[in-house]
Amino acid sequence: MRAIAEQEWLKGFLDFFFPPLCLGCGIFYEGEDSICATCFQKIEEFDHPFCLNCDSIVPSDSQCPICIKNSALLYVFADYRSPLKEIIINFKFRGIISPAKTFALLIASKFEKQLAKLNAQAIVPIPLHAARKNHRGYNQAELLARELASITNLELADNILYRHKRRRPQSRLKLEKRKANVAGVFAAVECENEIKRIILVDDVVTSGATVLEAKKCLEKKGYTVAGIVAITHGLL
Ligand SMILES: [Zn+2]
Ligand SMILES: [Zn+2]
Asked: In this structure, which CATH number among 3.40.50, 3.40.630, 3.40.1350, 3.90.1570 belongs to the domain 43-233?
């Protein structure tokens, strides 16, 4: 009894100094996922994947009818607008990691059949440069990938793709400069057959330049990028 009373006292103390707030709108909100119902309702979900190669919506299957072999299908939960934008800022820059689990569950349930059809063996997060990860303390794409791997029973392969060059954050650049900014930033270890088909995971995909560069790098090393998964897609 005493331990419970102490826990409640501690919770009251923490709530007073650090009140639980909705990550989208900042109102007082105590739910486990830290996103209030009003914010959830405002999130505009996507029901179909996009092909990043030709920038079109792909109505059903796991291949773009225009690009076929060059398909780069992005399975993404929702449009990059408020309040999701604020939620992502909290996730990315303020050390609040609960969105990893929240959105992994939502993505896995929305695209359950399509992701299973990709026949992937592993999930690979888009890496941060080591210096940036040290500074931030975590890589939000890796946290999301870890949750997704555990839900889908796929392996988390966080040791095959590296970012070996540090460049300016894509969000600070105009669209036309993003492709050049990420050219050659990734390196990957040679594919050794146990893991061949993979799903790439990032938190936000805007122009698609980063994930397409990572895909190209992995494919040069013998992997097949069967699909790309993200929480949100849209321009800044
Ligand atoms: Zn809210
Ligand atoms: Zn296409």
From this structure: 3.40.50
Q: Is 87 left (phi over 0), alpha (psi -120 to 50) or beta?
A: alpha
Ligand 2 centroid distance, CA of 30 (Å): 42
| Closest ligand (CA of 63) | 2
Q: What is the pLDDT of residues 209-224, one digit of tens each?
A: 999 999 999 999 999 9
Ion ligand 2 residues within 5 Å by Cβ:
51, 53-54, 64, 66-67
**Residue 108 C-alpha to ligand 1 middle, in angstroms?**
23
pLDDT, tens digit (0-9, with 9 covering 90-100), for 96-109: 999 999 999 999 99
Domain positions in the chain are 1-42, 43-233
Could you tell me the distance, in angstroms and rounded to a whole number, from the CA of residue 221 to the centre of ligand 1? 43
- With a CB cutoff of 8 Å and minimum separation 6, the contacts of 36 are 22, 24, 25, 27, 29
Distance 152 CA to ligand 2 centre (A): 26
Per-residue pLDDT, 109:
95
| pLDDT value at 65 more than 70 | yes
| Listed residue (215, 209, 211) closest to 230, CA to CA | 211
Reading phi first (left if > 0) and then psi (alpha if -120 to 50, else beta), residue 98 is in alpha
Look at residues 52, 76, 53, 51 and name the one whose alpha carbon lies nearest to residue 62.
51
